[in-house]
Structures are given as structure tokens and as C-alpha cells.
């Protein structure tokens, strides 16, 4: 998650949620996100809320972190119950970071076990952890699988050493096929994360990364254009002219190459930056974000959503641990969305999906824009005639512009 | 040294022999207002503790820019050798655009203080006003100001002034408005050197209007100089140009707050209030007489203000149109030179075509509209008025390129000006180059002093209204000064250049230019727009054309990527807020066909590079 928190309303200390979260709760799934705010090295492009091991102490330290996270799980159970929300088993769980696998696998297992103990878990639920190729072993992956993890998402980013260097990634590319095999052996589904458009990356470099990743036959690939966030080391390097800046046309060409090669390898796009081998192998946890389901985000800076109420925790791990130690909600702020705003979010998120969005659920402005979008080659005509707005390849690259054209006035 | 007057002469009962009417001719920042403030203080009409810097300049913009837009008159007592005198100081507008108003202020005086910065010497507009004063047979008192400055060169500039008006450099007074040095001596000299006004007290009343100001509470306040006879409160007066009659509700003098009097007699200067609400009913230069006993002949010199420069003013936000309309109506009450009419632009929506005396008048008006009425405005490139004769002999007056006729044209005439430029002689070459590139014809050149020259050119007005002054300033490192006045018209080979986005003509960017400059304009404007208009989802050709002939083209490549790569749980709120902001931004876009053009592009495209730099400072 980006490190800059939004401005919102104050959140109550007891974590109680307004009654509107109960409306339609039966139709919404419930997921859990667990943020692990640690990294071995801070990457130059990363503006996520993460810290290196030596930066923190007390309840925020790596050693104590699992216990602190579990205390938020317990807080969540109490607050949701007190708010009148019905008991719902977990549908998806996602451990992200940071580098979750910097914590001992036992710690990750302990947090998961606590959550499952309180809420229960659906049969066939998806439980993912992100991992750095450097920080897993065959043993740790087995332990995670035994604890209930079903899926691992490796931050491969690139197969080209000079690109990894600009990104400050420390792993050696040759380690990736090993860890993929270990994960397979442990029975875990495998996703690979790639980044394109890194300063200095040629089209040939990107093709190498794609072909290398695809040669490992992952179940799922995420490919993200590099975003240079304000305040990162990379932003400063670009500003000082030490590395070249970002070029949107280069990004577009690389996205087109990614879509071409990944599709040719038998994976299909189901969201602008995500491809899976089968629809079942799409990341269900992320789909829950895009479909407006409920989730509770555990950890400093983590975001949560329940029925149109969004909130986010205090950013610093020490402040976060202190709040929980005092039995107080770690939320820094929240916003309660009105119907119009929820509709804007729905359109904004669903438009990015391979399943698209229902045309007749748009208002008059949105429905009238569809013909122009077809004419401009931005949405699939066949799907549109069947009542769904699905982006073309060109449309995916211009998804934000499409959304602006179909939003209510 | 004279003491402050113990008793001040009473208005309506003052012998013309003890009246002295004068104005101060000075360049914008040569310290006129500071000197005037010092005089108010020394004569005791403003207590020292009430002094607010530049007391006479009332409007904020005037104070900030250090210039006087609206003149006023102040009556001050001053005692010399046992006699109390009444001194009327008539403040004059200090800019080239207001030449006519200056001429009327001068006509109300017997003398003028020629005030020149002792570190800078005389400037073109001051010189022009000095010539105007000399034509009006005013007695000139040359004064060097700011003698306290380390950079002051009083000997050099005293010689320059003496050379200009005749006389001895020793006679040039040296003062400092800032410290007050020499100001009392100047007041004494005004009494000694300036002639007293002369008029016939028994003749029918004749008073010349030299200024009129709209006041929210009192209506129009008219400033007059009585030439003959006397005006009294409650009597009916008549404006001789329009024959309109009014009741004189109040008459008095400013000292400097308005003070009602029993009337105004020969040579006196003061104000009238009749209850009218529009300065157009009290025109500068007009003669006021008594309805019961009217004068047969009005005073000479009256003329209607004539707009020279036209620009379209459009609200950035179309819903502000009524606010702009009301604001112009109000400004017009106080500005007899302002004319406007509604206008529609395909690109900019509803607005007004507004006529101004000159570019400064335009800038001040626009700034007042934005500041006092909280408006965001786009002003189109300034235009002059062309007289177009068609082959069928019909004559059309064009103040907006979009009105330029498309049919067969037999002749186009454009307004001309005679311009005077003063600068150090090292810049003569640069100035000549500039004027020639603007189709100027040299009229002559004189040395004011050994290193300063006066250069005279006849130029098309259209060539100086846009960026001429800015370029002159930069080519002369700030030392060049300019004055101009209307000087007939000429036949010229002019064409209209249209700018098209994706084949759609954008009226706001059209221009009427000389045929030789059409290509340069086309290249400049298409290049500028290519930089200013963001990439769209399709390629956008930009073309410049004369009629159907394309003379320049550029193209904006289609945007290929407009999507945020990641949109996970924590990104959603941020992403939505960005979207709302973009949506809001879209409202500030003008649609030209299918092309979204940001308002900023219109502003930037219609602004010269020099004035953009100025705005940044």
C-alpha cells in the first residue's frame, strides 16, 4: 500500500462501525489482509510502509510483531461483533508487505492460525503470501503449506541484473526457478510479479524478463508499470538526472508486449495488470477488493473496507503497537462513502476487470458514452452488444480515460 | 521659509489673485505621489499622524502599481510674505493611455511642476505631457526629485531639463519627496512664479470638467475648474455637450476630504454632486454652465474618448457570465472610456468584446474585474479596429478577427500612431531594428543630452499593442520609454490567419496580420499549441491557414497510456480522489470539436513570453 495515508474523518477508538455496514452484508464475502512491514533492504522505487529490521523496537520489532498482529485480529473480532456484523468465515487471506517471509514461517503460521481460529475459513479458501526469492527455503514453504497457505506470490520483478540493480532488488535471478519448484513441491500455487518500465530497461530486457518468467510456467502473473512515487530514492535519482525518467509510450509498448507474450503462453488477463492460467487461478483476494467485498486489514498503514466504510491504520509500527497495547483502535482515519461515491468506486474498479461491468447499470451519460468508446476502439463491441463493457487492449492502456467518460456527471 | 498658513482663504470668497492652480507632470515611479503627500503634510491639510503613504491614490491597484489612474484636486493653503494663498493641486493620470484626461487636467491649470527622477532623467511620456503643457501655455517649474538617492545625477539632468524648456540649469529646483528637502521652497516658488487665474466674475458661469468619479454612496463626483462666473449650491446646471440638466446638490472643495462650500468662483477648483449615477453624464472636457443664465459658448478642447484597442473578455467558468456583465456595468459607471458589447466565441463561450484606450487600460480593467469581482478571465489577443472595404464598396469595421469578411476585399485600412521613444543612445540600433520589424517609418531623431536620444516613428497601432513595449524594455535593458498618439490610418496588405484543431477552426486564436508576417504567426501559434494542449486519445493535427491555404502545421501524437498500474486495497481511496480531481479538471477544459483544451492553454497561447515572465515575478 502507498505510504501516504488519505485525509479522512477521525475513527472511533472502539473500532465500532456505523449501521450501514450491515446493509447487504450477506452478499459480501469477508477477507483478511495482513501487512508485514519489514524488508531486508528498502528498494529504491518502493514507497510502501515498510522498515528494515534494525529500525524498530518494542511491540513493533520483528520478534514481537506476530503477537501484535494477533492482538489486532482479536480487536477486529470484538469490534465486528459489537457492530452487529454476523459471523462470516474467511473467504481469502493475503499476507503482503514489506516482505512477509522475512518473519519466521512459524510467525506467519501463528497469525493465520489465530485468525482461522476466530472466524473459521471457507473450504477451498485462497491463502496467499508474498515472498522474496531470497527469503524462502524448501522447509519454510512446507511449513506455510502445512499451516494452510495455498499460494505464494514471488517478487521476481525482472530477470535482468542491471534492471534489478536500479530497483535495488538483492536476489540473484537464477534463484527464481528454484523457489518456484520448491513452492510447487510444497503444493502451493505460484504467482510471479514483474515490473516493467524501469529506467534503463530496454525492450529486449523486458522481453527477456517475460520469457524467463513464462518459462517457469507460473499459474499467475502480475505485471506492473513502474510508478515513480514522490519521496522515493528513485524519484530523487531521476530528478538529479542520475537515471532516465519514465516514458509513458515506452510503458505502453511494454504492456502490449507483455499481453502478447503472456497470452501466447496460455494465460488470460482478468484485470489490467493481472493474468491467470485459468479463471480459478485468478487472485480471489484481489478480486474481492475490486468487487467491493469486505476485508479487514491488519498491520500498520493497512486499509480496510466494510460495506462502504473505508479506514486505514496509523502508519508507524511503534504507534500501531502502542495503540493495540492500550486496547485502542489503531485506525488513523476513515471515510464513510455515500451511494454516489460507492458507485464511482464500483465503476472505477470493475472497468479494470476482464469480466467488465454491466452497461445497463451505468447512468444515461455512461450508457451514451459506450458507442463512442466502441468507435474509438476502447471497448469490445461483441461484449458491449451483450450488455457488458469490457476493455480492449488499447482500452486497458487508457482505462482511466475510459472511466472518466462513463462516470456519472 | 514660509510658515503654514494661519488662516486659509475661504472658497467662494477667494480673490483669483491669491489662487494658484498647478499639476505635477511626472513618470510613473518618479515620486509624484510622495511629493504630493509631502505638500499635503507641510500645508497642514493632512495631519502628520494621518499620513498614509500616497494619500491621493485611492485604489489598491494604483497603490500597488505606483501609478495614478484617476486624478483628483486638493486645495491647500500656503502663506508667503504675510498673504495666505489657495493652492489647487490637480493630480494627473500618469500613463500614455490617458492622454486626453491629462490634457484636460493641464487645461485646468496655469502652471505645471515638471518632476523628474534625479537618477533617471526624463521619460517619453513625461516629455509628451510636457509638450502638451507647453502647448497649453502653462508655466513650467522644473524639479528634480529623489536628490537623496546615491545614484542621483542632478547636474546632468538639470542640464537636460534646462535644455528642454529653456532657461538655466541653476533654476531647476532639487527636492526629495522622501525627506521633504526643498518642498517648502517649491511651495514658495509656485506662489511666486505661477500666474493667477483670469476670468470674468460677471459672465455666465463656465466650468470645465477635468475628472468625474463614481462613488457608491454619493453617485458621480465631478471635478471642475471654474473659468467664468460662479456656481452655487441648489441651482440648476447644464452640461453644454449633451444639454442635460441637473440640480447641484452639493458643491465644495477637497482638502483633501470633501468640504461643502457656498459655491465656487473664478479660478477655483472643486467638486460638484448632482446625484447622477454614470460618469458618462459628466464627461471629461465638457463645460458646466448655469441653466438660468447659460453661457453661449462652451470651453474649447472637448472630445469623446475613443477606444483604440479591443479584446474579448471571457469568464473561465461559463456560469460567471452574469457576474462579468454586472461587473462591467459597474466599472463603466466610473470609466467613461470603457465600451463593450456581448460576444460569443465558439471556443470560449459567452463573453464581451471590450474597447480600451490602450494596453494598460486593458490590463488595469482586467485586473480590477478579477480582483474586485472575484472573476477568472481569459482575455483574447488585443486587436485594433480595421476598416475593410469590400469589392461591392460596403465598408465593415472589424475589431475581432472572427468578423473579418470572407468575401472579396478591395482595401483594408489600419490605424496608425506616431510614437516617441526615449533611450540612451547606445540602444538606437536595437530600437530602429525593432521599429522596422514592426513596419515603422522613422520620423526623426534628436539628442536630448549628449547620451540620450528621442526617436520618432510612425507605426501601425496593431504592431505595438501586443508585446512591443515589453520587447522595447528588454532591448533597452529597461531604460527605453514609449509614448504614442493616434495618427490617422493607412492601407495595408493584411490577411486573417486561422488556426484549426483537427480541422475545427478556433476563433480565439485567429489573428489579422500583415501578409509578410502570417507565416511566422502560424508557425509560432501552432508550435505553442502543440506544447500547451495535452495529448488526447487520438492524433490532433494543428494547422494555420489563410483562407483554405495551409501555411503551417503541427501534430499532437495520440496518448497511448492513461491507466494506473496498481489499484489494490490501499490505493482505492487515493485513486478515487485523483479521479474526482481529474473530473473537476475536465470541467475546466474547453471542447473544440472532440479536443479537450485546458483553459491554461488559451491563456498561455494568448500571452506573450515576455508578459508570462512578468507574471511569474
Characterization of this structure:
The complex is a heterodimer of chains A (about 400) and B (about 625). Chain A is α/β, with parallel strands linked by helices. In chain A, about 40% of the residues lie in helices and about 20% in strands. The model of chain A has no long low-confidence stretch (mean pLDDT about 95). Chain B is α+β, with helices and mostly antiparallel strands. In chain B, about 25% of the residues lie in helices and about 30% in strands. Chain B has 15 helices and 31 strands. In chain B, helix 12 (about 515-530) runs antiparallel to helix 14 (about 600-605). Classes of the chains: A alpha/beta (about 400), B alpha+beta (about 625). The interface between A and B is large, with 47 and 26 residues.
Percentage of residues in DSSP E strands of chain B: 25-35%
How many angstroms does the end-to-end distance of chain A come to?
A: 29 Å
Number of H- or I-type helical stretches of chain A: 15
Helical residues, percent of chain B = 25-40%
In whole angstroms, how far apart are the ends of chain B? 45 Å
Strand order in the sheet with the most strands of chain B: 10-9-14-7-8-13-11-12
Overall spatial form of chain A: globular
Largest sheet of chain A: 9 strands, mixed
Fraction of helical residues of chain A: 25-40%
Q: What is the fold's blueprint, element by element?
A:
The complex is a heterodimer of chains A (409) and B (617).
Chain A: E1 30-36, E2 38-39, E3 51-52, H1 62-82, E4 90-97, H2 105-119, E5 121-131, H3 138-147, E6 151-157, H4 161-166, H5 175-185, E7 189-196, H6 203-215, E8 220-225, H7 233-239, H8 248-264, E9 268-271, E10 274-276, H9 284-290, E11 294-298, E12 303-306, E13 309-313, H10 317-325, E14 331-336, H11 339-350, E15 357-358, H12 364-375, H13 381-385, E16 388-389, H14 393-397, H15 399-406
Parallel strand pairs in A: 1-4, 1-11, 2-3, 4-5, 5-6, 6-7, 7-8
Antiparallel strand pairs in A: 8-10, 9-10, 12-13, 13-14, 15-16
Helix pairs in contact in A: 1-2, 2-3, 6-8
Chain B: E1 19-26, H1 32-42, H2 60-65, E2 73-80, E3 83-90, H3 99-107, E4 111-117, H4 124-135, E5 139-145, H5 154-165, E6 173-174, H6 183-193, E7 206-215, E8 219-228, E9 236-239, E10 245-247, E11 250-254, E12 258-260, E13 269-273, E14 287-290, E15 309-315, H7 321-333, E16 339-345, E17 349-356, H8 359-372, E18 377-379, E19 386-390, E20 395-398, E21 409-424, H9 428-437, E22 441-449, E23 452-460, H10 461-464, H11 468-475, E24 481-491, E25 494-501, E26 504-505, E27 511-514, H12 515-532, E28 540-546, E29 549-556, H13 572-587, E30 589-592, E31 595-598, H14 599-605, H15 609-616
Parallel strand pairs in B: 1-3, 1-4, 4-5, 5-6
Antiparallel strand pairs in B: 2-3, 7-8, 7-14, 8-13, 9-10, 9-14, 11-12, 11-13, 15-17, 15-18, 16-17, 19-20, 19-21, 21-23, 21-24, 22-23, 25-26, 25-27, 25-28, 28-29, 30-31
Helix pairs in contact in B: 12-14
Amino acid at each position: 500500500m502507498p505510504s501516504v495515508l488519505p485525509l479522512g474523518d477521525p475513527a472511533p477508538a472502539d473500532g465500532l462501525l456505523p449501521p450501514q455496514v450491515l446493509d447487504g452484508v450477506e452478499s459480501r464475502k469477508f477477507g483478511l489482509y495482513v501487512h508485514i512491514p519489514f524488508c531486508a533492504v528498502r528498494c529504491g522505487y518502493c514507497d510502501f510502509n515498510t522498515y528494515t529490521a534494525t529500525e524498530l523496537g518494542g511491540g513493533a520489532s520483528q520478534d514481537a510483531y506476530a503477537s501484535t498482529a494477533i492482538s489486532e485480529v482479536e480487536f477486529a473480532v470484538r469490534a465486528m461483533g459489537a457492530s452487529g456484523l454476523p459471523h462470516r468465515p474467511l473467504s481469502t487471506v493475503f499476507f503482503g508487505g514489506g516482505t512477509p517471509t522475512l518473519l519466521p514461517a512459524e510467525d506467519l503460521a501463528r497469525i493465520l492460525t489465530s485468525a482461522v481460529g476466530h472466524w473459521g475459513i471457507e473450504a477451498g479458501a485462497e491463502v496467499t503470501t508474498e515472498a522474496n526469492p531470497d527469503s524462502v527455503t524448501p522447509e519454510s514453504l512446507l511449513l506455510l503449506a502445512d499451516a494452510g497457505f495455498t499460494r505464494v506470490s514471488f517478487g521476481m520483478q525482472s530477470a535482468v541484473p542491471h534492471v534489478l540493480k536500479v530497483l535495488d532488488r538483492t536476489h540473484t535471478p537464477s534463484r527464481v526457478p528454484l523457489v518456484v519448484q520448491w513452492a510447487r513441491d510444497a503444493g502451493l500455487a505460484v504467482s510471479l510479479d514483474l515490473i516493467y518500465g524501469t529506467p534503463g530497461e530496454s525492450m529486449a530486457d523486458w522481453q527477456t524478463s517475460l520469457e524467463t518468467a513464462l518459462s517457469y510456467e507460473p499459474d499467475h502473473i502480475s505485471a506492473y508499470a513502474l510508478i515513480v512515487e514522490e519521496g522515493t530514492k528513485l524519484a530523487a535519482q531521476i530528478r538529479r538526472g542520475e537515471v532516465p525518467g519514465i516514458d509513458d509510450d515506452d510503458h505502453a509498448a511494454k504492456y502490449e508486449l507483455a499481453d502478447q507474450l503472456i497470452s501466447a503462453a496460455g494465460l488470460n488477463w482478468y484485470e489490467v495488470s493481472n493474468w491467470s492460467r485459468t479463471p480459478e487461478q485468478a487472485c480471489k483476494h484481489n478480486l474481492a477488493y475490486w468487487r467491493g467485498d469486505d476485508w479487514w486489514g491488519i498491520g500498520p498503514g493497512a486499509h480496510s473496507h466494510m460495506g462502504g466504510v473505508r479506514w486505514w491504520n496509523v502508519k508507524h509500527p511503534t504507534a500501531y503497537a502502542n495503540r493495540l497495547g492500550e486496547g485502542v483502535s489503531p485506525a488513523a482515519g476513515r471515510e464513510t462513502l455515500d451511494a454516489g461515491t460507492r458507485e464511482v468506486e464500483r465503476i472505477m474498479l470493475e472497468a479494470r476487470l476482464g469480466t467488465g461491468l454491466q452497461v445497463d447499470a451505468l447512468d444515461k451519460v455512461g450508457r451514451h458514452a459506450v458507442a463512442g468508446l466502441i468507435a474509438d476502439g476502447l471497448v469490445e463491441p461483441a461484449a458491449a452488444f451483450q450488455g457488458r463493457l469490457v476493455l480492449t487492449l488499447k482500452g486497458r492502456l487508457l482505462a482511466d480515460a475510459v472511466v472518466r467518460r462513463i462516470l456519472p456527471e | 521659509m514660509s510658515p503654514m498658513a494661519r488662516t486659509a482663504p475661504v472658497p467662494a470668497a477667494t480673490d483669483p489673485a491669491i489662487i494658484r492652480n498647478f499639476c505635477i507632470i511626472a513618470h510613473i515611479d518618479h515620486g509624484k505621489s510622495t511629493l504630493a503627500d509631502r505638500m499635503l503634510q507641510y500645508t497642514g491639510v493632512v495631519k502628520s499622524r494621518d499620513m498614509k503613504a500616497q494619500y491621493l491614490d485611492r485604489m489598491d491597484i494604483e497603490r500597488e502599481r505606483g501609478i495614478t489612474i484617476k486624478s483628483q484636486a486638493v486645495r491647500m493653503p500656503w502663506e508667503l510674505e504675510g498673504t495666505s494663498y489657495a493652492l489647487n493641486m490637480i493630480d494627473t493620470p500618469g500613463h500614455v493611455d490617458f492622454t486626453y484626461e491629462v490634457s484636460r487636467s493641464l487645461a485646468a491649470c496655469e502652471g505645471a511642476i515638471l518632476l523628474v527622477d534625479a537618477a533617471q532623467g526624463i521619460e517619453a511620456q513625461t516629455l509628451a505631457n510636457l509638450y502638451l503643457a507647453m502647448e497649453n501655455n502653462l508655466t513650467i517649474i522644473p524639479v528634480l526629485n529623489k536628490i537623496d538617492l546615491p545614484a542621483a545625477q542632478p547636474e546632468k539632468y538639470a542640464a537636460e531639463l534646462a535644455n528642454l524648456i529653456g532657461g538655466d540649469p541653476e533654476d531647476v529646483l532639487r527636492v526629495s519627496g522622501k525627506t521633504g528637502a526643498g518642498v517648502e521652497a517649491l511651495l514658495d516658488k509656485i506662489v511666486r512664479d505661477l500666474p493667477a487665474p483670469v476670468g470674468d466674475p460677471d459672465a455666465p458661469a463656465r466650468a470645465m470638467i477635468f475628472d468625474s468619479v463614481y462613488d457608491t454612496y454619493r453617485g458621480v463626483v465631478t471635478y471642475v475648474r471654474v473659468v467664468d462666473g460662479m456656481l452655487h449650491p441648489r441651482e440648476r446646471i447644464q452640461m453644454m455637450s449633451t444639454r442635460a440638466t441637473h440640480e447641484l446638490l452639493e458643491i465644495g472643495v477637497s482638502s483633501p476630504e470633501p468640504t461643502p462650500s457656498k459655491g465656487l468662483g473664478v479660478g477655483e477648483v472643486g467638486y460638484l454632486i448632482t446625484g447622477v449615477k454614470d460618469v458618462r453624464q459628466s464627461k471629461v472636457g465638457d463645460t458646466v454652465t448655469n441653466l438660468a443664465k447659460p453661457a453661449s459658448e462652451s470651453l474649447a478642447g472637448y472630445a469623446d474618448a475613443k477606444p483604440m484597442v479591443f479584446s474579448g473578455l471571457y469568464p473561465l467558468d461559463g456560469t460567471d457570465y452574469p457576474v462579468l456583465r454586472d461587473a462591467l456595468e459597474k466599472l463603466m459607471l466610473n470609466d467613461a472610456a470603457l465600451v463593450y458589447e456581448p460576444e460569443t466565441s465558439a471556443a470560449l463561450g459567452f463573453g464581451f468584446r471590450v474597447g480600451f484606450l490602450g494596453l494598460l487600460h486593458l490590463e488595469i480593467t482586467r485586473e480590477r474585474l478579477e480582483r474586485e469581482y472575484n472573476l477568472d478571465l481569459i482575455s483574447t489577443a488585443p486587436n485594433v479596429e480595421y476598416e475593410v472595404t469590400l469589392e461591392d464598396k460596403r465598408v465593415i469595421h472589424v475589431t475581432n478577427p472572427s468578423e473579418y469578411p470572407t468575401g472579396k476585399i478591395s482595401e483594408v485600412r489600419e490605424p496608425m500612431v506616431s510614437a516617441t521613444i526615449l533611450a540612451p543612445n547606445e540602444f538606437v540600433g536595437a530600437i530602429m531594428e525593432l521599429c522596422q520589424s514592426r513596419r515603422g517609418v522613422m520620423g526623426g531623431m534628436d539628442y536630448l543630452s549628449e547620451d540620450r536620444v528621442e526617436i520618432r516613428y510612425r507605426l501601425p497601432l496593431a504592431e505595438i499593442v501586443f508585446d512591443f513595449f515589453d520587447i522595447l524594455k528588454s532591448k533597452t535593458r529597461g531604460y527605453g520609454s514609449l509614448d504614442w498618439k493616434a495618427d490617422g490610418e493607412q492601407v495595408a496588405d493584411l490577411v486573417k490567419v486561422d488556426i484549426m484543431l483537427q480541422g475545427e477552426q478556433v476563433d480565439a486564436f485567429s489573428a489579422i496580420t500583415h501578409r509578410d508576417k502570417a507565416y511566422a504567426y502560424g508557425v509560432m501559434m501552432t508550435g505553442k499549441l502543440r506544447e500547451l494542449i495535452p495529448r488526447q486519445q487520438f492524433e490532433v493535427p494543428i494547422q494555420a491557414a489563410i483562407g483554405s491555404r495551409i501555411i503551417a502545421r503541427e501534430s499532437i501524437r495520440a496518448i497511448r497510456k492513461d491507466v494506473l498500474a496498481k489499484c489494490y486495497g490501499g490505493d482505492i481511496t487515493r485513486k478515487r480522489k485523483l479521479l474526482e480531481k481529474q473530473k473537476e479538471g475536465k470541467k475546466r477544459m474547453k471542447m473544440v470539436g472532440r479536443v479537450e483544451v485546458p483553459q491554461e492553454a488559451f491563456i498561455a497561447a494568448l500571452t506573450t513570453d515576455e508578459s508570462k515572465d512578468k507574471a511569474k515575478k
